[in-house]
Amino acid sequence: MRAIAAIAVLTLPLFSAAADKKPPADKVVAEKLTLEDRIELTRGLVAEYGTVKVLLPRSKKALEFNSDGTYDKKGWSEIAKESGPAARSGDSVQVTKITLEHDRIVLEINGGFKGGRKWYQGVQVGGGMGGASTAPISTNDSNAPGGTSLAVLFHKPLEAIKASEVKKMLAPVLDFEKHTVTEIYSETLPPEMQKAIKEKRVTEGMNHEQVVMALGRPRLHERSTKDGMDLEDWVYGQAPGKIVFVTFNGDKVIKVHEAYAGLGTQVQDPVVK
To answer: For the chain, which domains are there?
Structure first.
């Protein structure tokens, strides 16, 4: 009897310890989300296309992105040097799966680290309350070279949130709005250059593409040689009215001149800041 009692005393704590053991916090499903919340997030994020605004490295571990829009730029750059890019600025990518965890939403991009155009073909959308919600799909029209994953960190238990809110959080790295390639390129320029383009002004230092973004294609253009330089003049406007002369040396604007033709007056060259 004493032997049996001793065994009972020894085994009870073992069962108690097993019962108290919990999985890591980052692996616990977001328990505060209702079924409706999960469905809304899945429908609103999975299969969505976004345009990459910064280089996304391929990473076995999900790239960490804080819900306040910040992330470790240097760390991402180091990962890219080691594993290569999953997508570059301007590339189109697709969210192929989401996982809702205790304090984060993990988005699989283009099939994840080992993903590709064929990795997830044939996989169907699915989900459940018993574990992390997932929803892969089977198509991909992305032009990005590879895949990766992003973990949006909330640093607290995940609460009810809309897919549209998650998209806004990701704005520094992914743009889910429909934009032209020109608009995306414009956002990569220095603020003063963006301002000039929006105001339809040409400034010294712009290249051909940036001038076209600001004023469109020229009405006339001609080439000449002066002081050993190969110059190209673009002409906008016509008489009577304001005419803008843009002079290029190579691919850079070196002079901008405005004049009023047919009105007997001339305006001063614009001040370039």
So the answer is: 25-182 (no CATH), 189-261 (3.30.1450.10)
